[in-house]
Fold UDP-glucose 4-epimerase.
Amino acid sequence: MANILVTGGAGYIGSHTCVELLNAGHDVVVLDNLSNSSVESLNRVQELTHKSLTFVEGDIRDGKTLDQLFGLYQIDAVIHFAGLKAVGESQQIPLTYFDHNIAGSISLVQAMQRAEVFKLVFSSSATVYDEANSSPLNESMPTGMPSNNYGYTKLIVEQLLEKTSQADVRWSIALLRYFNPVGAHKSGRIGEDPQGIPNNLMPYVTQVAVGRRDKLSIYGNDYDTVDGTGVRDYIHVVDLANAHLCALNNRLEQHGCRAWNIGTGNGSSVLEVKDAFEKVNAVAVAFEFAPRREGDVATSFADNARAVAELGWKPQYQLEDMLADSWNWQKQNPIGYKS
Ligand code: NAD
Ligand code: WQD
């Protein structure tokens, strides 16, 4: 059992990963500045697992906080979720994104080096792949220049981690390229709680269903896909959380830097998701077709064979589970953690 630092652990994916880490018997220290989350998620993580974790409120860009943290707790490995993730916002305030996501990651890695902690799992994204690749996307395909600044920060951090590991063989780094995380813990006690108008499909759908928004705008119905709407690889957040535990085990044994896709390998269109959501949950989702959203691709789904073979990871949940669990969370928490 290990002592794991989870940066951004109060957030959507981080909180679900904390549950799985605690359930597996690990000790957990969370560092989060709460800029996009609340401590209530961590209270609920502890309530669900009947275990306690250590919470440090602070910023990954603050080297002193990091040094104190590494000095106080005997950290064995770091799972690094902290960062900003709104694609549209990243176009308006690029420097803020570069600061949190790139400078923040450098600050963390420097502190890890000072503390001689060399095991790291990083939240990357399928957005790093070159748009010219066709799905299923595999890890040997070239990365490209992402169409937005958020994606750019993920690509840069992947590259700087790769170069860091090449320069010092003590590093052991996992780059997990997430596809589209959705769903929530079965209990409905923790889930995705976006501030303001959701950017992503699933929280928008659940907020329409619960009456917080009028209707879903489906961005484009003239793509070259099964029904003209965009196709994505939705992955249950609990499967995604477990991928971090598998990656951690792999990195505790192996050196170097390696990327893995974390997706189911199945693509679903926006209309398929909306229709299945209505059917599984017996609730209506009003919608309209709207113009394509800038920067969107028609189709993106994973080849997950490398993760399955090398990490011993396998997704357990189907789309129907994801939709039922997203709705269960939203119904129980109509205004998120504030309710
Ligand atoms: P989230 O916003 O719910 O969680 C991120 C957490 O990091 C939040 O709790 C926030 O308060 C914290 N944070 C932000 N900046 C910080 C800083 N400078 N110092 C300390 N804490 C900071 O987001 P999430 O959906 O859980 O995403 C987690 C990670 O996964 C992010 O790096 C994101 O870019 C990446 N990712 C997410 C998706 C997705 O669709 N959700 C897809 C691919 C990759
Ligand atoms: C999915 C599909 C939309 C909202 C983004 C980031 C990526 C990663 C995950 C996170 C697309 C359509 C959406 C809506 C719609 N980032 N859609 N109406 O764009 O695949 O990926 O989130 O940290 O980097 O780019 O996910 O959920 O926004 O969209 O029709 O109101 O749903 O056009 O086809 P995307 P998404």
